[in-house]
Amino acid sequence: xxxxxxxxESPTTPRQGTAATWASPTLEANAGLLTLLAGVVLxxxxxxxxxxxxxxxxxxxxxxxxxxxxxxxHPENVEIAPLEQxxxxxxxxxxxxxxxxxxxxxxLGRKTKTIRTARIGLANQGPLVLGMIGAELPELRxxxxxxxxxxxxxxxxxxxxxxxLIEWLNVRLAQTEPVIVVGRSTGRLLxxxxxxxxxxxxxxxxxxxxxxxxxxxxxxxxxxxxRLSMENRSQGGLDVTVIVATPSPSKGKATSLQVxxxxxxxxxxxxxxxxxxxxxLQSALDQEPGHPxxxxxxxxxxxxxxxxxxxxxxxxxAEYAKFAPETIDPIASLRKAIESRMVGHACHNITLRExxxxxxxxxxxxKALLFLYESILSTHCGAGxxxxxxxxxxxxxxxxxxxxxxxxxxxxxxxxxxxEWRDYCDRLADAMGVPLEYRASQDFSQTETILTxxx
Length: 455
Known about the structure:
Layout: H1 18-21, H2 31-43, H3 48-55, E1 62-68, E2 71-74, H4 87-91, E3 98-106, E4 109-123, E5 126-135, H5 138-173, E6 179-183, E7 189-192, H6 194-200, H7 212-223, E8 227-235, E9 238-246, H8 261-285, H9 292-318, E10 326-328, H10 330-344, E11 349-356, E12 362-364, H11 366-381, E13 388-395, E14 401-408, H12 415-432, E15 436-440, E16 446-453
Parallel strand pairs: 11-13
Antiparallel strand pairs: 1-2, 1-5, 3-4, 4-5, 6-7, 6-9, 8-9, 10-12, 13-14, 14-16, 15-16
C-alpha cells in the first residue's frame, strides 16, 4: 500500500456527522444488520444502503472494512490493509481477534496505524473477515479494543443465527427459474439468482437494494401471463419472501385440471334452472300463507344459490388465465368478504383489526382475491357455533400486507371439510402467486392461516 492511499483523521479533527453515524455496539442484531450479513453471504457484495450501515460500526477516527475470501468487498476492491498482513485471520477460528500495527512514512513524517481483524464466519465464497483501521493513539486503544470486540461478537452471533435461513435460501436460489429474495421489513431486494439477473439486465438498474415494487414491473414484462409464486420464511429476526417467476406454459402444453371449465358452466346452467323453477313455485304459493311447501322451496333456493357460488368459485380457478389484474384495495375486499360471510351464511363471530400505516393498493384479479378470502373463511367458519375467528391485517411502508386468520374452536373442526377447503385455497393461491401458511393443532381445534400480499 502506498502512503496517501487513504487518510485517517486526527482525533482533533472534527468528523462530520460522527454523533449521528457512529453506531453504538450492541450484542443484539437488528433487521438492518441481519439483512446486511445475509446479503454478503448470498451475493458476495454490498449495496449502497448496506455500506452506509456498515460504516456506522466504526469507532471514532477509524474505518471499517470487510474482506471475503481475500477480496475486499468494503471498500470495494480497495486494499486499505495489505492482505499479507492479515493472512493469519483467514486461517484462524471464529473466536480470535487480531491486532496489527502498520508503519507508514510520507512527507509529514512517520505514522503508525492499528489494524484490528477477526474472522466472523464463512460465506458462500469463503472466509469472511471484519476489520477496523485507525491511527495508533494510546488514549483510545482500550476503548477501540472494547468497541471492536463487541461488534465482532454481534456479527458472529448474527451469522450463526442466520445459518439455517442462509442454507434454505441457497437451495431456493439454485433453481433454474428466476428467483429473487425480498426482505419483508424493508420491501427491498436482498438477493437473486443468475436467471433473474439475466432477466433484469435490460432494465438498466442494479436490482439489489431496490424496492420490489420497482422490480416487479420488469419481471411481469418478461414472463407475460406467467405468475409470481411467493414463500415466506423467518429466522432470528429476519423475515424474507422468496419470489419465483414462472413463465406461462406454451399453448401446446396441456394443463391438468380437476374439473373442466365447460363442465362447471353446464352445471351452473342446471343450478340456475332449479333455482328459477323453485322461485316460480314459491311465488305461486305466496297466495297461500303458511303452506308447508313454502319453507322447503326457500331451502332449495338458498342451497341452489350456495351451490352456484361454489361452482363459480371452481370455474374461476379453471379459467384463471382469462382474468386480468386490477388495481384494488385488498382491505376493502377483505371487509366485503367478512360481511358476506356473516350475513349470508351460518357462521360464528368474526372480528377484523386493521394495523395499517397508509392506504394500500395491489394489482390482482379482484374476483379471485374475494373468492380466496371467502374460501379461507370457510376453512375457519366450519368450527363450532361457540367459536371465534380473529382477522388481523398488517401493513408497513415498503413491505407486504400480511393477513392472519386465527380460530379457536369450541369443539374439534371437521378434518375432512377443513382439508378440502384448504386444498382449494392452496390451488387458487398458487394460481394467483400469493403465499399461504397454515398452522393447526393436532385435533384441528385451533387453526391459523397467514396470507401475504405484495403491494
